[in-house]
Task: inverse folding
């Protein structure tokens, strides 16, 4: 079994599309490292200090992490999609998720997205944000470094948006019951969602941490950290909500249908009881009426979002705590708490 799994992964790695993403990712990482190094060297040469050494180091590491995430996500999506297609294509002949991956991993479009996203940071640094240095060469290298480190982010964002669109297409094939949500597609979406949200949270955490130790933070006080925190929250909410929305929508429809059906039965039972009382029968059998009301209350308690399990809630909590860590660190650094702790351990 393990050998078959390894063979499947090796086959994916030999694909032409995987190779293109691998080359683009490596170039993005290497150019990030080179431009970050030249930026730091020029700072040292002109000012005999490196202001953003932690900032550049974190973003270099972040670029490499993002490169590995894109490739691992490609392998996971391809392999799990092949398995899912094979498991349910007999029941649903129109289901071809493997071919649908071509819409998610469109290399030229994701490459263009990376260039555009990186260019936003490049031109913003040169023409919108106020200069951090009196040397245009240092400013240009910093802008180029920001372009390179955000190039892979732009590619990843394009892939994520295309995946979001594909989850809506997957929604039409979800076949779950109100009390049994073990549909292969729902399992696929939830498993992929947990992986994506944790990866996105890690990348966002690293980005916020880099801002915390950057000169942008020093020059603009908390503005840059606030802007990136808001951006991070938006991305995380979308990454968590969108992929599992089709499942929640299906559960909501099943729940509403069940509640409507039981409401009609409760109404019929109520009318039957009142009719018996109107006919002078003082004793009415309330067993069915109470049972239906109890069932209605139980169904009404069913959680629509997140649609299943404690793992979804656990993931959301972990992601939230991870993302809020950089602002918390900033608060500790700026407050007297850190000075108090240092005084205690002197």
Result:
């Amino acid at each position: 079994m393990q050998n078959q799994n390894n063979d499947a992964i090796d086959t994916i790695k030999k694909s032409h599309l995987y190779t293109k993403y691998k080359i683009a990712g490596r170039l993005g990482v290497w150019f990030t490292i080179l431009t970050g190094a030249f930026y730091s060297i020029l700072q040292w040469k002109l000012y005999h200090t490196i202001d953003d050494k932690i900032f550049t180091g974190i973003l270099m590491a972040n670029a490499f992490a993002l490169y590995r995430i894109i490739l691992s996500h490609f392998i996971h999506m391809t392999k799990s999609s092949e398995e899912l297609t094979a498991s349910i294509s007999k029941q649903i002949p129109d289901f071809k998720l493997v071919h649908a991956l071509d819409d998610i991993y469109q290399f030229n479009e994701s490459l263009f997205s990376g260039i555009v996203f990186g260019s936003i940071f490049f031109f913003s640094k040169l023409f919108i944000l106020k200069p951090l240095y009196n040397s245009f060469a240092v400013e240009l290298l910093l802008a180029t470094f920001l372009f390179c480190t955000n190039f892979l982010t732009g590619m990843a964002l394009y892939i994520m948006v295309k995946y979001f669109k594909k989850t809506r297409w997957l929604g039409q094939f979800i076949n779950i019951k109100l009390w049994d949500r073990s549909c292969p597609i729902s399992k696929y979406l939830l498993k992929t969602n947990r992986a994506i949200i944790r990866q996105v949270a890690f990348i966002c955490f690293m980005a916020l941490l880099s801002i915390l130790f950057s000169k942008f933070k020093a020059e603009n006080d908390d503005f840059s950290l606030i802007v990136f925190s808001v951006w991070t929250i938006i991305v995380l909410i979308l990454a968590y909500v969108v992929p599992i929305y089709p499942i929640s929508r299906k559960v909501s429809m099943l729940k509403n249908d069940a509640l409507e059906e039981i409401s009609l039965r409760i109404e019929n039972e109520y009318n039957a009881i009142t009719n018996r009382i109107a006919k002078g029968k003082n004793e009415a059998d309330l067993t069915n009426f109470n049972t239906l009301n109890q069932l209605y209350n139980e169904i009404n308690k069913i959680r629509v979002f997140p649609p299943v399990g404690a793992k979804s809630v656990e993931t959301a909590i972990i992601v939230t705590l991870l993302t809020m860590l950089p602002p918390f660190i900033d608060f500790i650094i700026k407050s007297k708490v850190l000075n108090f702790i240092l005084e205690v351990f002197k």
